[in-house]
Amino acid sequence: MSTTVEKLLDQAESEIRERGYHAVSFRDLAASLGIKSASVHYYFRQKEDLGIALVKRYGEQFFNILEEKAEELDNPLQAVIDVYRNALTSSDRICLCGMLGAEGCGIPKTLSDEVAAFFQANIDWIAETLPKTISAAERKRQAEHCIATLQGAMMLATSLNDHKVFDRAAKSLLK
Amino acid sequence: MSTTVEKLLDQAESEIRERGYHAVSFRDLAASLGIKSASVHYYFRQKEDLGIALVKRYGEQFFNILEEKAEELDNPLQAVIDVYRNALTSSDRICLCGMLGAEGCGIPKTLSDEVAAFFQANIDWIAETLPKTISAAERKRQAEHCIATLQGAMMLATSLNDHKVFDRAAKSLLK
DNA sequence: GTCAATCTATCTATTGATAGGTAGCGATAA
DNA sequence: TTATCGCTACCTATCAATAGATAGATTGAC
């Protein structure tokens, strides 16, 4: 049985990934758990605090799963694609950071900084796994291309309501 | 001198591309033009109507500029990249449809349908310009990859606050 | 008795939306 | 010529709903 905080984070992540930061309210979240909005404020003083906790947890889970997958597959790039693909298909939602990244300066600065850190870590992780025969600048470029494509593909696939769009767009990355 | 409706559309596009649909209010827009929110409702009965007018205008302008650029450059793919690049760098904002596409089912259905139509037209345009020696399915796939990458690259570049991220990510598309 | 976890109740601000009024202009009929 | 009609482009005033947030009471386990 998960705790109230965990349920709160799960629900918030789900709703924000579905509709965006501003379309989700403490009352929504509370109602989904059968509690009152004041109780949400007990765990997260401000909405901003909830957002930051959310992105931090998301990043940790993401990299844990990624490391696991990379070891299992022995193909880092395929691992990244698989993790993104699973994030999309298991929930029919885009990446939490993809949503918050799009909302840009519509969300608190501390939150968008956290989102940017996620992307940077993601890029660095990929760049690090590419063959060292490639220059550092080129590895960085390829990593940026990879993340851009995967994030864009999630958005495109949900907008067009077809997961196959993601699969097809991601396929190019393996060439 | 532009009319009030045009100023309204310009302001709304700018603000929505910056912060998202839900973070923009009729009062914001009205205040920016020095009028009252009731006057915005005079031109657009509901917020949804404004959104739809916005996406339609955006799409028309986008394809007009794209056709022009394609003729000028004689390289359709480069033209697409240039138009996206200009959309990003001239305003430091992501694509209107990129933002609304991310917000997914947080926006009215009629609006997200319009956004999806923009993406589909975009994909079809690119697929049409690729060499006919490539199969239709493969052309479609490459077109989807292209849009996904460009949309993702805009988001990534604004999140990381560095336009060069867009340029580097987009560079792979020309190979 | 203490403390975590919840509640009730309430505040202020903002939202999308509506009803109804008004100023100014061009067309038109007396 | 002038009165007035109708229209556009705004306005004031207001609504109900919802937002984030806070103060302070209650409950129950240890």
Write up what this structure looks like:
Two copies of one chain form a homodimer. Chain A has 175 residues and is mainly α. The first copy, chain A, has a single domain, classed as Orthogonal Bundle (Tetracycline Repressor, domain 2). In chain A, 77% of the residues lie in helices and 0% in strands. Chain A has helices at 4-19, 26-33, 37-43, 47-73, 76-89, 96-103, 109-129, 136-159, 163-171. In chain A, helix 6 packs across helix 7. Chain A is elongated. The mean pLDDT of chain A is 96. The A-B interface holds A 18-23, 93-94, 97-99, 101-106, 112, 115-116, 119-120, 140-142, 144-145, 147-153, 155-156, 158-161, 165, 168-169, 171-172 and B 18-23, 93-94, 97-99, 101-106, 112, 115-116, 119-120, 140-142, 144-145, 147-153, 155-156, 158-161, 165, 168-169, 171-172. Chain A binds a DNA duplex (30 and 30 nucleotides) through residues 4, 25-27, 35-39, 41-43, 45-47.
